[in-house]
Amino acid sequence: MAKAKKKTVKVTLKKSVIGEKPKTRATVEGLGLRKIDQTVEHADSPSLRGMLHKVDHLVAVEES
Questions:
Q1: Which of 22, 28, 29, 45 has the lowest tally of Cβ within 10 angstroms?
Q2: DSSP alpha helices (H): ranges in 20-61?
Q3: pLDDT value at 2 more than 90
C-alpha cells in the first residue's frame, strides 16, 4: 500500500511587519518567518490556513 503524500505549503514573507499590530507580528513569527524574502515550508492544515488568512497582505503562498 502506497503512502499518501502530504500536501505542503511554501510561505514567503514579502512585506515588513513594522507598523503591524502585535497579534499580526506574532502570527508571522509563529509561521517561522523573520526576514523579508525568507521562505518556510509547512504541512497544510486548517490552523495554518487560518494563520495565512490573517497575514495574507504580508506573505506569498505557493502550494505544492
A1: 22
A2: 22-30, 46-54
A3: no
CA distances from 3 to 6, 42, 43, 64 (A): 9, 19, 15, 17
Residue 4 DSSP class:
P
pLDDT tens-digit map of 23-45: 999 999 999 999 999 999 999 99
This prediction's pTM: 0.88
The total domain count for the chain is 1
DSSP annotation of 35: S
Residue type, 39: T
Domain contains 30: yes
